[in-house]
Amino acid sequence: MKFSLCNEVISDRPIEEQFEFAASLSYDGLEIAPFTLAEDPRLITKHTVALVKKAASDAGITVTGLHWLLVKPENLSITSSEDAVRRETLEVLFANVDLCAELGGKVLVHGSPRQRMIDEKEDRAEAEKRTLEIFFAVAARAEAAGVLYCLEPLRREMTNYINTISDAVSIVAQINSSAFKTMVDTSAAASTESVPVEQLIRHWMPTGHLAHVQFNDQNRRAAGQGDDRFLEILRALKETGYNGTIAMEPFLYEPNRNACAAFTMGYIRGLFEGLEAQV
């Protein structure tokens, strides 16, 4: 397993310094939110791509993937009944898939809760059908680009569509692509699922549907800064053969950005090395 930091945690500094700081904390890479690079991923230039790749190389770590795919530009939606909105949303998603591949990333995480909401006035079945059309197209693009596209289940208070791993797997099964999977966000799973996160992992990982993991506490702070305990989650990942990346994605940076990034890496790597020592 490798460990990555979601870069918006430290995006108050230039990208070169983000990679340097992450490397100094023993992260293996950064998982990048495209909106930290540009207001629209379609506007990210070859120069910017080269700059990011050089920053990663100089720091000795990598870009592990992308997340927060639809934050910018405004008014995107995968469920909208407006053809023009969905068309632009698909263009942005294609740009993100291509960007991930260009940066050497392996995984895209589709969270973006507001941009998947189904309006209560809409016919839900029709909205879900429209979403499937987008996901079929994105999966084909991801397969061609050689990256994995992961649908992220999110808390019910954040969105009314795709809240559990079971919800996501039902879509993954319909798309039926080697490049289209789901993933575990521990904060969302702990607050939404009916069983502990480690039990979810032991159930779903052997199916091949899970391809990525993000760590954060139910309280929205970093792993280790709340009541959730991550030793059993790490044990479940190890015992089910997960060899991908764990991305640290706190939303509340306590006591500050730097300390939050440092604390969670120290906490998780310490637990992981303890598990490794037991072998």
Can you characterise this structure?
The chain is an alpha/beta fold. The chain has a single domain (2-277), classed as Divalent-metal-dependent TIM barrel enzymes (TIM Barrel), CATH 3.20.20.150. It contains nine helices and eight strands. Strands 1-2-3-4-5-6-7-8 form an eight-stranded parallel barrel, surrounded by eight helices. Strand 7, helix 8 and strand 8 form a beta-alpha-beta unit. Helix 1 packs parallel to helix 2, helix 3 packs parallel to helix 4 (124-145) and helix 7 packs parallel to helix 8. The model has no long low-confidence stretch (mean pLDDT 97).
* Rg result: 18 Å
Residue stretches low in confidence (pLDDT < 50, at least 5 long) are none
Give a count of the beta strands, DSSP E runs of length 2 or more. Answer: 8
Helix content: 40-55%
Mean pLDDT: 97
Name the CATH class: Alpha Beta
CATH architecture: Alpha-Beta Barrel
CATH superfamily: Divalent-metal-dependent TIM barrel enzymes
In short:
Helices cover 44% and strands 14% of the residues.
Key traits:
single chain; 279 residues; alpha/beta; TIM Barrel; eight-stranded parallel β-barrel; 9 helices; 8 strands
Q: What's the helix and strand layout?
A:
Blueprint (H helix, E strand, L loop, with lengths): L1 E5 L8 H10 L4 E4 L13 H14 L2 E5 L16 H21 L3 E4 L13 H22 L2 E4 L13 H11 L4 E6 H7 L4 H8 L5 E6 L15 H9 L5 E4 L8 H21 L2
Parallel strand pairs: 1-2, 1-8, 2-3, 3-4, 4-5, 5-6, 6-7, 7-8
Helix pairs in contact: 1-2, 3-4, 7-8
